[in-house]
């Protein structure tokens, strides 16, 4: 019984046959000799390193690897010897770890480069480039196929389909233009949203908003927060679980002895030595809540920006460019701490323009 499939005459291929996988190399670029099979590497086209250069390379690479070994040991020793703690020891540890690791990686990379360039043989390889354009037959085949597809889709014969498709695509084309509006006048509203926090809003009863302890939600009686050096993480009452609000409104509350407060702090915005600062670091917004009681330093753990809490939370070290904003506080009729107004300047990272609000505060002699 014959197989009919083999009897049917196959049309001549109109496009070049697709080659799956890596094509066979052209004879002129092959590293194999005419009678060699794959697996037999020909030395034709290969420059072997002369023994003198190879020996030199071997010594140089070995030296690099020895340096890598020693630097690796130094890294481990540094980790054990230099413990982090205060600012100085942390800097020393970072320097030792970073320096030894850099040296180890650099020496390892140099050794490998020397090994490849001075010890291993060099190959001369030529890769042929072919014309980018398809041949005429392929182009005409694509053209024919496209026209055939268009005819079969009925886009020319069925105007209802064509018009509704165009109508459906039009709003999608306009979508990017609508998004561009965010760069225009509506930016002003965005700016406003960044400027204000919920501390500026009164409660439903029209009273100033109380400060409550983060986690427990307990309001803070000023008389109870009375040990100098004490620190609390604080959120606005009514917004204890609102992450959007908390992202800008979280505070740290610090109690000072009156003689500890310096001129950078606006004393009119404090109550009995209690000062409230934004907890959002002015570098890139990490929570800055590590507090060193003896020096009054607030430390941001992300990039080590350090702020002087006694002096208006001015930056004394690190990449932050401006102080942590201070919140004006007082006590209500029952002696609980409340915010008397919103922050006078925007909280958080300083990468956007602060503009008029800050200028106004500077004019009034408040915190800048
Ligand atoms: S976010 Fe605080 S120092 Fe970078």
From TrEMBL:
GO CC terms on record?
plasma membrane
InterPro entries reported for this sequence:
QcrA_N, Rieske_2Fe-2S, Rieske_2Fe-2S_sf, Rieske_Fe-S_prot, Rieske_Fe-S_prot_C
Regarding protein family, the annotation reads: Belongs to the Rieske iron-sulfur protein family.
PROSITE patterns associated with the record: RIESKE
Which residues span the membrane?
60-82, 94-116
Task: Name what cofactor the protein needs.
Answer: [2Fe-2S] cluster
From the Swiss-Prot or TrEMBL record, state where the protein is found: Cell membrane
Topology with regard to the membrane?
Multi-pass membrane protein
A single GO molecular function term of this UniProt record = monooxygenase activity
Q: Per the record, which residues fall in region Disordered? A: 1-37
Q: Which Pfam families match?
A: QcrA_N (PF19297), Rieske (PF00355)
Q: Compositional bias (Basic and acidic residues) spans?
A: 1-16
Task performed by this protein? Iron-sulfur subunit of the cytochrome bc1 complex, an essential component of the respiratory electron transport chain required for ATP synthesis. The bc1 complex catalyzes the oxidation of menaquinol and the reduction of cytochrome c in the respiratory chain. The bc1 complex operates through a Q-cycle mechanism that couples electron transfer to generation of the proton gradient that drives ATP synthesis.
Q: Which residues form a coiled coil?
A: none
Keyword terms, alphabetized: 2Fe-2S, Cell membrane, Disulfide bond, Electron transport, Iron, Iron-sulfur, Membrane, Metal-binding, Oxidoreductase, Respiratory chain, Transmembrane, Transmembrane helix, Transport
What is the designated name of this protein?
A: Cytochrome bc1 complex Rieske iron-sulfur subunit
The residue ranges of the Rieske domain are 269-338
């Amino acid at each position: 019984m014959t197989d009919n499939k083999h009897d049917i005459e196959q049309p001549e291929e109109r496009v070049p046959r697709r080659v799956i996988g890596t094509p066979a190399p052209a004879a002129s670029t092959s590293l194999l000799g005419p009678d060699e099979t794959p697996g037999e590497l020909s030395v034709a086209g290969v420059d072997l390193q002369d023994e003198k250069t190879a020996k030199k390379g071997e010594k140089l690479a070995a030296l690099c690897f020895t340096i890598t070994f020693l630097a690796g040991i130094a890294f481990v020793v540094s980790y054990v010897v230099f413990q982090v703690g205060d600012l100085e020891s942390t800097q020393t540890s970072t320097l030792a770890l970073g320096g030894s690791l850099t040296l180890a990686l650099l020496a390892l990379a140099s050794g490998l480069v020397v090994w490849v360039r001075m010890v291993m043989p060099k190959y001369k390889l030529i890769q042929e480039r072919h014309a980018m354009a398809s041949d005429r037959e392929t182009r005409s085949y694509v053209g024919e196929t496209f026209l055939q597809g268009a005819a079969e889709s009925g886009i020319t014969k069925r105007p209802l389909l064509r018009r509704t498709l165009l109508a459906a695509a039009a709003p999608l084309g306009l979508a990017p233009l609508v998004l561009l509006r965010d760069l225009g006048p509506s930016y002003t509203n965005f700016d406003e949203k960044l400027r204000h926090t919920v501390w500026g809003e009164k409660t439903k009863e029209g009273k100033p908003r109380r400060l409550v302890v983060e986690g427990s939600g307990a309001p803070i009686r000023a008389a109870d927060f009375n040990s100098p050096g004490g620190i609390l993480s604080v959120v606005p009452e009514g917004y204890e679980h609102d992450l959007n609000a908390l992202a800008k409104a979280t505070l740290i509350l610090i109690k000072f002895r009156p003689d500890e407060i310096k001129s950078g702090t606006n004393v009119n915005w404090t109550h009995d030595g209690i000062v409230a600062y934004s907890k959002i670091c002015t570098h890139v917004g990490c929570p800055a809540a590590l507090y060193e009681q003896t020096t009054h330093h607030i430390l941001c753990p992300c990039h080590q920006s350090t702020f002087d809490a006694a002096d208006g939370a001015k930056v004394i070290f690190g990449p932050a460019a401006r102080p942590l904003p201070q919140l004006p506080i007082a006590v209500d009729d029952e002696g609980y701490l409340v915010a008397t107004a919103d922050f006078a300047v925007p909280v958080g990272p300083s990468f956007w323009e602060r503009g008029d609000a800050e200028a106004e505060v500077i004019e009034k002699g408040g915190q800048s």
